[in-house]
Design brief:
Blueprint: E1 5-8, E2 12-14, H1 16-31, E3 36-40, E4 44-47, H2 49-60, E5 70-73, H3 77-85, E6 95-96, H4 100-110, E7 112-115, E8 122-125, E9 129-132, E10 139-142, E11 148-150
Parallel strand pairs: 1-3, 2-4, 3-5
Antiparallel strand pairs: 5-6, 7-8, 9-10, 10-11
Helix pairs in contact: 1-2, 2-4
The structure holds zinc ion.
Amino acid sequence: MAEAQYLLIPVGILDRPAARRLVEEVEYLLKKGYEQVEINGERLFPVLSEGLAELSRAAQEELRDHQANIHFFDLHPESATRFLLHGWRVDRRRTALGEATEAELAEEDAGLVVDCEQCGATFRVPTEGDYACPSCGATFHADERGVISYYES
Ligand SMILES: [Zn+2]
């Protein structure tokens, strides 16, 4: 018999609170005895850096023993790009929570992933500091987690 599997279909933004809720839902399912959780990512959009950071954290902490059994599939194309930018290995719009550990490591080398809230562009900066968005020119400060605050223009 196949192992007990559960399908989740999250809809909308993956920011930090949404990622937190998703992690709690997965934990609840694991406690109920499901061994495998499949997450349909077709309607999971937009995916923010802070949401992926929260998933990476959970993958190394409370979901550590289960990360290989938690998959995202049919990711929204733009969301799949976000996962890729964060170093997750994505194959045919599919990835596993187990990819997150590597993502965290890759990110240390590659700097911070920043989402410009003014124009929606995603890009990397080498470290904490003051920058201008390469797409719209908005000036901002990026902290050590890639969270940005804008300056009055
Ligand atoms: Zn911008």
